[in-house]
Design a protein that fits this description.
With about 450 residues, the protein is of the alpha+beta class. The chain folds into 2 domains: about 210 residues, PmbA/TldD superfamily (PmbA/TldD fold); about 230 residues, no CATH class. The protein has 9 helices and 17 strands. A 6-stranded antiparallel β-sheet has the order 3-2-1-4-5-6. Strands 7-12-13-15-17 form a 5-stranded mixed beta barrel. Helix 4 packs parallel to helix 5. The radius of gyration is 23 Å and the shape is globular. It starts with a helix and ends in a 7-residue tail after the last strand.
């Protein structure tokens, strides 16, 4: 059973009541999740878990201690406070981290993004979705694997300065990969979707998308490395946005001089808008951060100009501003992070993005992305599960995978067109992304693979 607002906040009050001296923060993280996995055209796993934990941060004389527990009876709460306090007393002073946010008068919607139908979804519903996806793959003689998950997430925070915050949300996610084998040149297709409301998950559509892509990837040939015009599907764009969030949009990265963001300067094309908004119901809403601060919309890239970065209490204090509501749980070496990124769409119907491209590459998604040069936002990674040659405005043949090495701000400085439609996608590692498909004027592919499945 998922705990409600009053019960959770009462528990956090009890935690703070055990603190003896100094200031403290109590963070509650709850998850009630269910997962159905399928592989080789059959469901092979169905699991459900309920877990809740409390994390305590104690600050005494600029010394910080953090401890956590999932023992939520009184003895467990007392013990976690004692452990956090002992850690603080044995830690070197760290004034950069020894600060907590204060209430600013704003209220966050405690249940934006919570859908009862998702919370109540059962194994039968997920099995029906898995069967629909598997059937689509079988019609194309493909082996299907993937997962269908639903979850209720609860975040709540209280601190000794008066913060009291609670948010509960739901999400559903369906992902599939379809293949016709594992030998060199094996074809594969991919599709993924997510939503707060499980009733918005169209399993038949996801199955058809992946199966169609897998079928068209049969007979892939080795491409030539080089610079190409590209069409990046929403999956590929979301993957790039996730890494921009990781290396560049953080107040800590900016403070330490390792972000590509140069505030007030144009860093991308005039038609590029990127923002973070945990309160937008068209995303996967998350209305408070892990310090209990209400999330604000932050316009990161406005008409190509680097206009803002995100902050938690610590980076905001050092920058002389206020938290934007983007803290991660302490202790945190990454700094604040945008978790609900949006990229503005354009006016072009998705199917018309390839119009006028004489020779280019269509990319379904990237994987194994890694930063090469964070300051320039140069990333490297592989194409996967659907890479095609474009000639004279149409897709002509499938290609084995490329490796790319590319400055993303540079690539986003030549956005020839963006799709009118956008797609909501859960992040591979964190957050959620609503992104369009893009036609980019140039993208640098530095190598090729010997097999469609990877290097």
């Amino acid at each position: 059973m998922v705990a409600g607002r009053d019960e959770v906040l009462a528990l956090l009050e009890r935690v703070l009541g055990h603190v003896d001296g100094g200031s403290a923060e109590a963070l509650y993280l709850g998850e009630d999740s269910a997962l159905t996995r399928f592989a080789t055209n059959r469901i092979h796993q169905n699991v459900r878990q309920h877990d809740a934990s409390v994390q305590v941060r104690v600050i005494t004389d600029d010394q910080v201690g953090v401890a956590s527990t999932n023992r939520l009876e009184e003895a467990g709460l007392r013990d976690v406070v004692e452990r956090a306090t002992a850690i603080a007393r044995r830690s070197a002073p760290n004034p950069r981290a020894a600060m907590l946010p204060e209430p600013d008068g704003r209220e966050a919607d405690p249940e934006l993004g919570y859908v009862a139908a998702t919370a109540d979804a059962d194994a039968d519903l997920r099995a029906e979705g898995a069967r629909a996806v598997i059937a689509a793959g079988q019609r194309k003689r493909l082996e299907t694997s993937g997962s269908y998950s639903t979850a209720v997430m609860t975040v709540a925070a209280a601190n000794s300065l008066g913060i009291r915050a609670f948010h509960r949300s739901t999400r559903a996610s369906l992902l599939t990969v379809m293949m016709d084998g594992f030998a060199s040149g094996a074809a594969s297709g991919y599709a993924h979707t997510g939503a707060p409301d499980v009733r918005e998950i169209d399993a038949e559509s996801i199955g058809h998308e992946a199966a169609d892509k897998g079928q068209r990837m049969r007979g892939a040939t080795v491409p030539e490395a080089g610079e190409y015009e590209v069409v990046l599907e929403e999956y590929a764009v979301a993957g790039l946005l996730e890494y921009l969030a990781y290396i560049g949009f953080s107040g800590l990265a900016y403070e330490e001089g390792r972000s590509f963001m140069e505030l007030g300067r144009r860093v991308m094309g005039e038609n590029v808008r990127i923002w973070d908004d945990g309160t937008d119901p068209s995303g996967l809403p998350s209305t408070i951060d892990f310090e209990g601060v209400p999330r604000q919309r932050v316009d990161l890239i406005s008409d190509g100009v680097a206009s803002a970065i995100v902050h938690d209490a610590a980076t905001a204090a050092r920058a002389g501003t206020t938290s934007t509501g983007h803290a991660l749980p302490a202790p945190n070496l990454l700094g604040p992070m945008p978790m609900n990124l949006f990229m503005g769409g354009g006016q072009t119907p998705r199917e018309e993005l390839i119009t006028g491209i004489e020779r280019g590459v269509w990319v379904t998604r990237f994987h194994y992305i890694n930063p090469v040069h964070p300051k320039k936002a140069i990333l490297t990674g592989m194409t996967k599960d659907g890479t095609f040659l474009i000639e004279q405005g149409r897709i002509t043949r499938p290609l084995m995978n490329f490796r790319f090495t590319q400055s993303i701000p540079e690539a986003f400085s030549d956005v020839r067109a963006a799709s009118r439609e956008t797609k909501l996608l859960p992040g591979e590692f964190f957050g959620a992304y609503r992104a369009p498909a893009l036609h980019l004027g140039s993208f640098n592919f530095t190598g090729v693979t010997a097999a469609e499945g990877g290097e």
